[in-house]
Structure formats: structure tokens, C-alpha cells
Amino acid sequence: MQQEVCWVQRSLPLVHPVTSFLRRSWRWEPLRLVSDLDYHARGSKMHDSHCTRRTFLAGAGTAFVNIGAGKEPVRRISTGLVKGRATAEPRVSAWLGIPFAAPPVGILRWRPPQPPQPWTGVRDATHFGASPCAPSMPGLSLDYSPDRMSEDCLTLNVWAPPNDGRLRPVMVWIFGGAFVMGSSANPRYDGARMAAEGVVFVSINYRVGILGSYVHPELSQESPAGVSGNYGLMDQIAALRWIKENIAVFGGDPDNVTIFGQSAGAFSVGFHLVMPQSRGLFHKGIAQSGAPLGRPSSNILLGRQAEMSKSGVDFARRMGAGSIAEMRRTDAMKLVKTYGFNWLFYPNIDGWLIPDHPYDMMATGRCANVPVIAGHNHDEGRIFPPLGNGSMTGLRTALSENYGTLASDMLRILEEQNVGNPAAMGQEAFGDIVFNWNSVALFTAMARVSRSYAYRFDYAHASSQPDSFVSGEGLGAYHGAEIDFALRTCRFKMPERRAEQEYLMRNLSGYWLNFARMSTPNGPGLPYWPAYQPGSGKVFRFGEGEPVLDDIAFRDRLVLLGRAMDNRIVEQS
């Protein structure tokens, strides 16, 4: 039986006399369970040695990393030299498509990520790496479609201002896409404008869909931990380890890392808050629309190992494969196309990487003690197919499945709120189940552990088209509408609204940047945003004017949903 492997750090000298003090590389040992005591003991030792390295970097200048200059900046990372390029933002450079792990192909498919191989010479890092393999979906209109997909996708991208000896805050963007699609190459995630504000911006790829979450008994037997799945989350952890090891070369502070993402990226932030292996790799989190805190199901992208393992056997049989060896020999895109746009496999509670239900872990303090920003958009469900597929009969059935004996109460509330036809009511219910309840639960739970800042995005005139199953106007503050404003990538297609959009973009991105710098969103020139107080029922509302405190939206619906799940946290919000 082959053993799974994960990387552990060992100091190894380099030829270069200065970088030998700084650089570490990875070697491999069999994967083993790490107790909390062992983890924290090792982590504290690593932190002590790293503080010395930070002090050295801050005081020694950057001559040793600025091997190149001008339009082709070159940096030495743990695996070799990388050549980046200038960007449209003056004094901001980008290094794109940097491998943070070995290609997860062949026998490495459905295994924890392994370390990237070193190279000789200077590696070109002026173009994005391939996007993760993902299916096409009839009826889904995409704002961005990758021009190149490959199983060899574990790369990341860095945007940075000039390295002047100061260590700057690091912001790590995790893309969304329901854990079945997505790409760090999406222009909406371009980090140049954020880097121009004095941070080091990183975006990462990770495995998605059947290649990122597949669960099968034979895979579990291969693992010393006795589990399978969650490979995409392991990829994210590997990227965060790479950042901790290498980001100082780009002027980033490895002790000031903010992870943030939208949709599946927000759910990922929620997972990192409770995964022991993520501890110490980030120091703040921003979750834009989502968290894995509700009842385990495909709706909230949280499953259970045993149930998925049965589905894994069925899928292998469907592929005509009698073993995992045969599955690993199957063409990646054939697997992806056969699997399609499905949610049989997604992050699962395996007792190891995700030890327990994330809500229970947060409620009992078994999570990262870090500040968070969390919130949702006003019209999350508008771009999705409705619960019940648009008919009243289908809606009643779907509500019964999700609300049990409280289904009629939910239907009554929707009717009283003049939501409209069954399709509109189904979309509102979908938004509550997947995004709204989970976001409110997250900022409430984390306010008890550390400090949280709660928001709602109400601006209904987004600057880009959504990834949507629905066409037409009137989508409101739809799922993902805030991304351009948070990342400073607005396209300003409506001249009559440009002034208000610029104001909103300055505010929202300004809060995000301040949070990355100082662990609070507040700073000069911005309206004061108070930390969330459980029981206040107040969130910071971003709309057409100045942001203001407002009541939690749809609270009566969310309370009802919580009762259906036997979880009263929203009632305490």
C-alpha cells in the first residue's frame, strides 16, 4: 500500500550567501496525524526562528531579491528564480503562474499536494497558469471562461509594490464557484490595484469538482488518516504554507496574512477557521457570502465522509473502473465531463482535516482566534434556479424538505413580504439556506471567539455581469455583485453612476485594506464601522450612499430556518 505524504519543513542551505539564511525547502515524510499539542509546540518554534528572519529582511533591504529590475522583475523563491512583469499600475509588478505544489496528475491524483520541483535558470512568471478542470453547464452564463484548463493547475499569483525593505500586509484571495469551477485568472480578481494601495496581493488555484473532492473507500485505505476527499482544501493549505515560506521575498509580511474569498471562497475561509492544519498560516479572514455552518448538505457545501464514500463507489462503477488505479489512468476531462455540474462530492467532515461540524467547533472555541469580516448580499438567490423549479407545488415540497413542520410558516412569511411568484419565493429561500443564514451565523459565532465586523451589500447596480442561470435586468445586489468593489476592479459601464460606484469602491476596498493592515476596517476618511455585538441585530449596510448601520435583513426567515435546523444562533444575533 502506498502512503500518502505531506510536506514538513527542514532548513537546507543554498549556494547564495544571503538567501541561505532565509530559504527553506520541503522534503517528504509519510503523512501522520498531528495532535494540537504537537502542532502548537512545533508552531511556536517555527515562529521564533521566523521572527529572526523577519527582522533580518526588514533591516537588510532588498538587494538580494531584486535580481531583475524594470519590466522584468526577478525574485528568488524556494524553488528557483521567477521573472515577473510590470502591470498597468505604476510601480506594481506581477508574478503569475508560480507552482506552489507538484502537478497532481497520474499517481498524485487524489492525494495531498506534494512540493513543487526546483528548476534551474529563470522561470517565466508573466502569464497565468492553467485553470482547474471544470465542466460546462448548459444555461449558465459566465462572466469569465478560462482559455486553458488542466489538471496541472496548482499555481498562484503575486502582485506587489516595490520591495523597499518594509514588510507589507498580505491579502490572499480564494475564488468561488461552488467547489466545482473557478479560476484565479478571472480579471475580476486582478490584484494590481489592491497592491498599488500598499499590500501584497496573492490569488491561488485549487482543485475543484471530482478532482478536488472525490471520496472513495480505496482512497481512504491508502491514507494513514483513513480518510479521503478535501483535496482542494489541502491545496489551499499548501498555498498558505508556500506564502509563509516565500512571501517576504516579494515584500510581504508572513505574520500578517488575511485570507478572503467569495461564495466557495467564503466557505473556504470558514473551513480554515476550524481546520487545525491551517492554524498559524493566516491572521485575519473575510468571508463574502457564505460559511459551512448549517445542516450538512450540498446546499451549504458540507458533507459527511460515509455518505460520500458510497457515492464514490457508484461513480467509479459508472466510469467502468474497478479500482482507484484505473480511475487515476482515466483522462481528467472525461472524469470532469461525466461528473458534470453536480454536487455529489464537496468538502466533508472527515474527522481529520475537518475534525467536527464547523459550527460546533466555533461554538466551543475550537477555531482560530482571529478577527473576521463576514456578510452577504441583499439578493443572493436572484441568479440561481429557484427552490421548487418555479412551481408552487415544487416550492411546497422543497420547503418541506428544508423546513420540516415549519414549511408553512416560511411560505406565509414569503407571501406576507410580497416576494411575488413561486420562482421569486424559491430564489429567496435558496439565498437564505445557502448564504444568508450561514453568513449571519458566522459573524455571530466569531464575535464570541474574537472580533467580527458584519455587513450587508445592498448596492443594486453592479459594474459587471453575473455568473448566472437567469437572464434579464433587475437582479439587484446579486451573489458576487460586491467583488469588483472590494477588489477595486470595477469596469464603470454606467457613466451616470460612475461617481457613486467610485465612492462605493473606495469605501468597500478601503475597509478591506485597513482590515488587512490593522485588524480593523476603520481608518481616516471612512465612516466608523463598529465591531459586531451579538444581540444588537445591527450590520453595516453598503448601498448607494454612505454606509450605515441597519437591521439584519430577513431576520424572521432566518430565525425560522435556524429552528428547523435546531440551531438558535440567529435568535441571539
Please describe what this structure looks like:
The chain has 573 residues and is α/β, with parallel strands linked by helices. The protein is built from 17 helices and 18 strands. The chain has helices at residues 19-22, 36-60, 192-195, 209-213, 217-222, 231-246, 264-274, 305-318, 324-329, 332-339, 358-363, 392-403, 407-416, 422-449, 483-487, 498-518, 555-564; strands at residues 5-10, 25-30, 74-77, 80-83, 85-86, 93-99, 122-124, 155-160, 168-174, 200-204, 252-262, 284-288, 303-304, 348-349, 372-377, 452-457, 538-542, 548-551. The chain has an eleven-stranded mixed beta sheet, sandwiched between helices. Strands 3-4-7 form a three-stranded mixed beta sheet, with no helix packed on it. Helix 3 (192-195) links the parallel strand 9 (168-174) and strand 10 (200-204). Helix 12 packs across helix 13 (407-416) and helix 14 packs across helix 17. The termini are far apart.
Draw up the topology in text.
Blueprint: E1 5-10, H1 19-22, E2 25-30, H2 36-60, E3 74-77, E4 80-83, E5 85-86, E6 93-99, E7 122-124, E8 155-160, E9 168-174, H3 192-195, E10 200-204, H4 209-213, H5 217-222, H6 231-246, E11 252-262, H7 264-274, E12 284-288, E13 303-304, H8 305-318, H9 324-329, H10 332-339, E14 348-349, H11 358-363, E15 372-377, H12 392-403, H13 407-416, H14 422-449, E16 452-457, H15 483-487, H16 498-518, E17 538-542, E18 548-551, H17 555-564
Parallel strand pairs: 4-7, 9-10, 9-11, 11-12, 12-15, 13-14, 15-16, 16-17
Antiparallel strand pairs: 1-2, 3-4, 5-6, 6-8, 8-10, 17-18
